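INSTRUCTION: Work out how this chain folds

Fields: amino acid sequence; protein backbone structure tokens

Chain under study, with its fold:
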Amino acid sequence: MRVFATLQVRRSINRAPFLILLSLLLSFSLYCTGYRVGDVVDTIVKTSEQSSDALNSQMPMFGVPTTAIFSEAPSDSSFSLAFQEGMRPLPWMEMVNHKQQPLKEVIVTFVYSKSGDGTIHAVSSETIYSENKNVEGFRVKYQWVEEEEVDLQSGSIVMFLGVLIASLVVLIQSCGGAGFDISQIDDSTDSQSTSFDAYGGQAQISVASGMPKWD
């Protein structure tokens, strides 16, 4: 029992530095994903068969309304666009609608904030189809809607401090639990014995010594 409890305590203590390091890395990543106005937002064109990066001229610029031309339509019947390393995907869009009208334009709306580190909060899309069935390619219109300005940097600092304090509490509890778990082990297990009849007598085997004691 002592060995098992000691191993459990050591494992919890060994995990504590790892949890702190992981929390620090997650908090630090908040400062590494921000955009500045005019930065290119990476864009992926997805079909059922493959995914590929869009051309630089087809990618949106953070906080800047632009229009991109996709002269070569995806070979598939439907496709999607995904932004910010694929973390912000759009719903699948049909190249031809149920009226057999070809896709003319996609309006992509970004909800963002540029205070502190620029952040994209949400992405939505709207499709427009053409009555002219000889349309080749389509255009994508990027528009940006800014959320009410908030102090994201201060919020990130508060979150960072909260994660750090929580990690320290886990470490202190793990270290404090070391003495508690071992001291709470019932020492009576060392004095427990097992008795049985043998040759008309009674034998007791001491758990502590492991040697039989005959009455």
Summary: The first strand starts at residue 43 and ends at 46.
